[in-house]
Design goal:
The chain has 14 helices and two strands; from the N terminus they run αααααααααααββααα. By secondary structure, it is mainly α. It has a two-stranded antiparallel ribbon with strand order 1-2. The structure holds fe (ii) ion (FE2) (2 copies).
Length: 333
């Protein structure tokens, strides 16, 4: 790969370099033709690393994302709400599994990725480090957080890497259910008592800005965007996706009778987009660094769950040893 030239005999470097350039050009041509890249195909190391990084962050976000909502399963106000919430949280666990599996096709193990997460060395979406203080937060998360996730993830169904793109198709269908149940919950509160409307407004006010931050830093400060778009891992920039989300969500908030917690929000007739006030990127950086309201709590909960699940992994390994025909079960992370 890129380091091969370092090992080459003097005089051979030029030929290797030319061969590498030709391979890269053929790879780019395949991407440009919208062909899917599959696990056994040649790919640049940077492409592989970029994908591992992105898919791992995505997988971690799914399983850490189970925690803020799991917090309300025991307090759901009706059997119907409890069933819906349990189904949603289970879906998120499933999304984590599909994505860890997609990452494994790139030559990294799920166990290694989980280890990085538990050691505090991996990133996951900043949004899951905020607390769920009231029942209305469950509605706000479904509507806004899953809504933002859909904006981000629909284009990933066309990502150039086959296993990731295919995993996203099913994930997006489930995210759509998550968004709808959240909006329906908010609608119920918005049509309820004054106290319920106030609870919905309070949740919206707390989740709106963190949801806008989910799309990542503004394009001017995003290090990976250009190459990622050239390789069709990403199809839209962070700012484009954020704008789509704002334009779709503001009218929904108006329909719910909620006021947007941003005095600078306005409709810009020239661009035909809503414009928001500035985003506090200092807060975003702090949350990513580990200083958000719930970072420590989230990692502690994941570590505890991992330790409590040690017997399941041991049992899977023991079973695999007894039944070699089912050996893949031994890779349970
Ligand atoms: Fe998900
Ligand atoms: Fe979801």
């Amino acid at each position: 790969m890129y380091t091969q030239a370092l090992d080459a005999q003097p005089g051979a470097a030029g030929a290797d370099d030319a061969e590498q350039q030709a391979r890269l050009a053929r790879f780019q041509e395949r991407i440009d033709r919208d062909e899917k890249i599959e696990p056994t195909d040649w790919m640049p190391e940077q492409y592989r690393h970029m994908l591992i990084r992105q898919i791992a962050q995505h997988a971690h976000s799914e399983i850490v994302g189970m925690l803020p909502e799991g917090n309300w399963i025991t307090r759901a106000p009706s059997l119907r709400r409890k069933v819906v919430l349990i189904a949603k949280v289970q879906d998120e666990g499933g999304h984590g599994l599909y994505l860890y599996s997609a990452a494994e096709t790139l030559g990294v193990t799920r166990a290694a990725l989980i280890e990085q997460l538990l050691a505090g060395q991996a990133r996951y979406s900043s949004i899951f480090n905020y607390p769920t203080l009231t029942w209305a937060d469950i509605g706000a998360i479904g509507w806004l957080v899953d809504g933002a996730a859909i904006m981000n993830q629909i284009p990933l169904c066309r990502c150039s890497y086959g296993p990731y793109a295919r995993a996203m198709v099913r994930i997006c269908k489930e995210e759509s259910f998550h968004q709808r149940q959240g909006y329906e919950l908010m609608l119920t509160l918005a049509r309820g008592s004054a106290a319920q409307r106030a609870m919905a407004q309070d949740a919206f006010a707390r989740w709106w800005r963190p949801a806008l931050m989910m799309f990542g830093p503004s394009d001017a400060h995003s290090v990976h965007t250009a190459q990622s778009m050239r390789w069709k891992i990403k199809r839209f920039s962070n700012d484009e996706l954020r704008q789509k989300f704002i334009d779709a969500t503001v009218p929904q908030a108006h329909f719910l009778g909620l006021s947007i917690p941003d005095p600078e929000l306005r409709w810009d007739a020239a661009s035909q987009h809503f414009q928001t006030g500035p985003i506090d990127w200092g807060e975003f950086e702090a949350v990513l660094r580990g200083d958000g309201p719930c970072n420590r709590e989230r990692l502690a909960a994941r570590r505890e769950a991992h330790e409590a699940g040690a017997w399941v992994r041991a049992a899977a390994v023991a079973y695999a040893e007894k039944h070699p025909e089912h050996a893949p079960a031994a890779s349970v992370g």
